[in-house]
Amino acid sequence: MRHHTPLLTLILAGLAATGARAHSQANVTEGPATTIYVDSEKGSDSNQAMSAAGTPLAGTSLTGGSLAGASLAPLQTLQAAINVAKTNSLNKVATRIVVNPGTYRESMNIVGNSDPTAAPLTIEAATTGAVTVSGSDVLKGWQREAAHPTIYEHSWQYNFGTCALPTGWPTGFSSISRRTEMIFVNHKSLTQVLSFASLHAGTFFVNETGNLMHIYPPAGTNMSTALVEIAVRPQILSVNGRSNVVLRGLILQHARSCMNHSGAVVTGSTNVLIDHVQAVWNNWGGILISSSKNVTMQYSTASYNGGVGILGDRIVGGVFNSNKSNYNNWRGAQAGFYNWGMGGTKLMLSRNITVENHHSYGNHAQGLWFDTDNKNITITNASLSNNYLSSLQLEANEGPIVLKNSHLCNSGMGVTVLNNAKLTIENSTFYNNGGTGIPFEAEIYIAGRFGGHRIWDWQTGESYDLFTKGTILTGNTFEDSRSGQNVFGTYLSGSDWYDFANTLVASGNRWYNPATSSAFRLPSNKLVTFTAWKSAVGTDYSSHWVATASPAAACAVAAQ
Question: pTM of the entire structure?
Answer without folding.
Answer: 0.92
